[in-house]
Specification:
With 461 residues, this protein is an alpha/beta fold. The protein contains 19 helices and twelve strands. The protein has four domains: 116 residues, Response regulator (Rossmann fold, 3-Layer(aba) Sandwich), CATH 3.40.50; 163 residues, P-loop containing nucleotide triphosphate hydrolases (Rossmann fold); 65 residues, Helicase, Ruva Protein, domain 3 (Orthogonal Bundle); 70 residues, Orthogonal Bundle (Arc Repressor Mutant, subunit A). Helix 4 packs across helix 6, helix 13 crosses helix 15 and helix 17 crosses helix 18.
Length: 461
């Protein structure tokens, strides 16, 4: 049996966590404030601490040093309904074992607590104060973005190479900048370059520099990006487009931590963190021999996948507000119909396409509230998602076709058409709801309009 302290000012959450963890055999105490939690730790030293961020009085993460002083071996699991990158970074820098975003599935909490109790927490030093991060902003509160924030917070204090994958326009460079901004290298340079559509000699000169004279520093010498980013971070964008000879030299750089400028005879040591980004499927490129497997494994020290906008449509209002706030001009109002129109597009260009669409709509609206007819035409690669009655009509037509294919004759009718159709439809809608909430059963049940017990029973069945 382990001792667990839940610090949350929402009585319903405190009660449900106490009940669930108590049923699992743990001794559970609940505190509604940091002050009460500190008093509790004086007599009840927890093995695990479930800590809310926004509490009456003191902030939960700000109180972590005091709580750790009283319970130094406790595994801390941070909980919040207002997750963003800054909160995730603060939690991980404070030594949190994990980070959960409300509403969460109680079964997931149970799993995280079990892992926390079974694993000794790693001893990590908080990262130094970061430099100003103006312009480094990943916007969103959806489940896919919460996972991105958490992974950035985990990767930032390390020196592992990071491989950021995702479709064009999903914010891969922003993620790289955020990793740098929250890392111990934050006060040193962040440089980025694209490896697409360039001759190998040009890429090598840009990355490694070149010398024209016999001695370093002679007229015409030029430092490459690896030297210019010394002590900082270098983003190699579109790494999947690197020519084979460049891939071989990059592998050598990552393994030996040194570069040889073009025309030089001796290598030079470097101290640079490498972050790579690509919209290509590098696993497939490795399988077909287009990308070196050894370089892929070197770059993939910490993978980070950026979700397409179509998987995080819940973030549309926040993204629109952000783009309008930073447009530099008068801020127009937003109609509900405008947001509905945005949700009905597929956004093949992702957040970048959305930003351009908002800028276009603002110009066309000329100060009026943004409406659907202010949007540019949908991208040919991403036609609008039909909504309203047409979608309902297609469902009705599909049901008619399904019935026609299975309609029994009078002699062999089994009388189970209704049950079979419901089973088919329920499976699909439950699968979709779980997929679109990243497996969060509480959120999926709320969106479906059923209670969590019903959803669990349907899944089990």
């Amino acid at each position: 049996m382990s001792r667990i302290l839940v610090v949350d000012d929402e009585p319903a959450i405190g009660w449900s966590l106490r009940e669930m963890l108590g049923e699992e055999g743990h001794a559970v105490e609940v505190a509604a404030s940091v002050e009460t939690a500190l008093e509790t730790c004086g007599r009840f030293v927890p093995d695990a601490l479930l800590l809310d961020v926004r509490l009456e009085g003191r902030d939960g993460i700000d109180a972590l040093p005091d709580l750790r002083a009283l319970a130094p071996d406790a595994r801390v699991i941070v909980m919040t309904a207002f997750g963003d990158l800054a909160t995730a970074v603060r939690a991980m820098e404070g030594g949190a074992f994990d980070y959960l975003v409300k509403p969460f599935d109680l079964e997931r909490v149970s799993g995280v607590v079990a892992r926390a109790l079974a694993t000794r927490p790693a001893t990590t030093s908080p990262a130094p104060a970061t430099a100003a991060t103006a312009g480094v902003r990943l916007v969103g509160h959806s489940a896919p973005m919460q996972d991105v924030f958490k992974r950035i917070a985990l990767a930032a204090p390390t020196d592992l190479p990071v491989l950021i994958t995702g479709p064009t326009g999903t914010g891969k460079e922003l993620a790289a900048r955020a990793i740098h901004a929250h890392s111990p290298r934050c006060r040193r340079p962040f440089l980025a370059t694209s490896l697409a559509a360039r001759a190998p000699s040009v890429i090598e000169s840009e990355l490694f520099g070149h010398v024209r004279g016999a001695f370093t520093g002679a007229t015409g010498d030029r430092a490459g990006l690896f030297e210019l980013a010394g002590g900082g971070t270098l983003l190699l964008d579109e790494i999947g487009e690197a020519p084979p000879e460049v891939q071989a030299k990059l592998l050598r750089v990552l393994e030996a931590r040194e570069i040889t400028p073009v025309g030089a005879a001796t290598p030079r040591p470097i101290d640079v963190r490498v972050v790579a980004a690509t919209n290509r499927d590098l696993d497939a490129a490795v399988a077909t021999g287009l990308f070196r497997a050894d370089l892929f494994h070197r770059l993939n020290g910490f993978p980070l996948a950026m979700p397409p906008l179509a998987d995080r449509l819940d973030d549309l209002p926040a993204l629109v507000e952000w783009f309008l706030e930073h447009s530099g001009g008068p801020r127009p109002a937003i109609t509900p119909a405008f947001l509905d129109a945005l949700r009905c597009r597929r956004w093949p260009g992702n957040v970048r396409e959305l930003r351009h669409a908002i800028a276009y709509a603002t110009v066309v609206a000329r100060g009026a509230a943004l409406a659907p007819d202010h949007l540019p035409a949908a991208s040919p690669a991403g036609p609008q998602i039909p909504s309203g009655p047409p979608a309902e009509q297609r469902v009705q037509d599909a049901v008619r076709a399904w019935v026609a294919e299975r309609w029994p004759d009078e002699a062999s009718g089994s009388g189970d058409l209704h049950e079979r159709l419901l089973a088919c439809v329920e499976t699909t809608i439950f699968d979709e709801a779980l997929a679109r909430t990243a497996g969060n059963r509480t959120a999926a049940a709320r969106l479906l309009g059923v209670d969590r017990a019903t959803l669990r029973a349907k899944i089990d069945r």
